[in-house]
Amino acid sequence: MKVSDILRVKGNTLYTVTPDDPLGRAVNLMAEKDIGSLVVMEHGDLVGMLTFREVIQLIVKNAGQIGTTVVRTAMDDHPLTCTSATDMDEVRRMMLDRHARYMPVMDNKMLMGVISFYDVAKAVVDSQNFENKMLKAYIRDWPAGAEEEDGKSEPNFP
Description:
Blueprint: H1 3-10, E1 16-17, H2 23-33, E2 37-42, E3 45-51, H3 52-61, H4 71-74, H5 88-98, E4 102-107, E5 110-116, H6 117-140
Parallel strand pairs: 1-2
Antiparallel strand pairs: 2-3, 4-5
């Protein structure tokens, strides 16, 4: 399974801010849209990610205040990225290694979307559920004559 499979199901709605936007505006957008991250773009380029983690760290550092802080002050300016062709096993490893909950998907400097750890987990569960259904259907449709000598209708595994 590839990242493109998740993006196809997820859709392509993206929310972005610039590094010079007020952090308060970004936080309000995250709350309004019920999202955990914003892509930070400047002159058409990805320059960072703002997630609830960075917002909370800044609020704690500033004794509970956002004030006139801009996004640039709080954002992760070296976000972990992947491409549409990246394999899901690699994405899981990368996200776990860096404790990343959100990952921008870039193809040739073009932002294709953002996947979350939730999206990855859901894709894995959906894939396992499909595989389980296929295996159960295969077992249920076991060909006649495959019974064991004692007359039970169980598959005869080598």
